[in-house]
Amino acid sequence: MKFISLIFFNFLSFFIKLSLTDYTQLINSDTHVILESLKYNLPKNITTSDVDCNFTIHKESCKNPSMTVDDTISWHTTVCLKWKCNNPKLIIKVNKCWIGSQNNPIFIIGHDGCTVEGSMMKSPHYNIMTLREAQSYGRLSVRVYGKDYIHLGCSITFCHICDETCIIRNQPICEDHLNDKEFKLKSKKAWTMLPFVVDYCDPVKDEHYLEFLTSSASKHLQYTIYLISIIYIINNKYF
C-alpha cells in the first residue's frame, strides 16, 4: 500500500512539474496576432458599402507603425488597439472584442463598449473631435496552447450622427474612464452635445442651436467634457 502511494505521489509530482513547465514556457513565448475582420452593426438605410473602417494594433503606442503578420508580442508587451472609420455621418462604438481562438474566445471589451478585464485592456477612448476613432491600451496576455498565434476580433456599432436616441443608447459610460458618478449621470447626453455634432445636425439658423450656444449650462458642460478628455488623453497617450 505504501509502495502504491509512493508511486502515485511521484506521478502526481511529475505531472505538476510538467504542467508548470509547460505553463511557464507558454507565457514566456512570443506570439503573432491575427486580426479578424470587423463585424458591423449598422443602422437602417446604411449598408456595408457606406462603411470604411480600419482596425490596427501597435506596439507601445498608436503613434508607432501598425504591426504586421510577421511581428510578435510578448506576455508583457503594451499594445494599442486602434479603430478608425471614415464616414462623417456615422459615429462608432467599439464592442464585443475578444482574443484567443474562435472556438474559445476570451472577451476583453463587452457589448456595452467597456472593458471586461481592466487589468488586460482598458475601455476604448474616443476622439471627441469626430467620434469615428477610438484607441485602447493594454496587454494581450493570452496564449493558445500549441499555437504561435492568437486571434483578435471586434464589432463596431454605428449611429447616424443626428440620431440622438441611438447615440444616447450606445454611448459607453465606463467605470475606468469616469469615477465621478454625478458626472456620469450628467454626461449621458455628452456625445449629442459636442459642438461638431450640434453644428452638423442643427445649423446656426436653427433657433435651438442659438439657444444652445447661449446656454451657460451647456457651455459649462461642453468645457467640462473637453477638459476631462484633454487631461485623459495627455495622461494616457491617446491620439
Structural overview:
The protein has 239 residues and is an alpha+beta fold. It has two domains: 1-29; 31-236, Sandwich (Immunoglobulin-like), CATH 2.60.40. The protein has six helices and nine strands, in the order H-E-E-E-E-E-E-E-E-E-H-H-H-H-H. The chain has helices spanning 2-28, 164-170, 181-186, 195-201, 207-214, 216-236; strands spanning 32-35, 39-41, 53-59, 78-85, 90-100, 105-109, 125-126, 133-139, 149-160. Strands 1, 2, 5, 6 and 9 form a five-stranded mixed β-sheet that branches. A hairpin with a 4-residue loop joins strand 5 (90-100) and strand 6. The longest helix is centred in the N-terminal third of the chain and has 27 residues, at 2-28. It is elongated. 23% of the residues are buried. InterPro entries: Cuticlin. Keywords: Signal. Residues 1-21 form the signal peptide.
Question: What gross morphology would you assign?
Answer: elongated
Count of spatially separate domains: 2
Q: What's the CATH topology label of the largest domain?
A: Immunoglobulin-like
Biggest beta sheet attributes: 5 strands, mixed
Whole-angstrom Rg: 23 Å
Measured as a percent range, the helix fraction is 25-40%
Number of strands: 9
In what range is the share of β-strand residues?
Answer: 15-25%
What is the name of the CATH class of the largest domain?
Answer: Mainly Beta
- Number of helical regions: 6
CATH architecture identity of the largest domain: Sandwich
On the 0 to 100 scale, the average pLDDT is 81
Which structural class best describes the helix and strand composition?
alpha+beta
In whole angstroms, the N-to-C terminal distance is 68 Å
What series of H and E elements makes up the topology? HEEEEEEEEEHHHHH
- Regions with little confidence, pLDDT below 50 for 5+ residues: 6-20
Keywords: Signal
InterPro entries: Cuticlin (IPR051962)
Protein name: Zona pellucida domain-containing protein
Signal peptide: 1-21
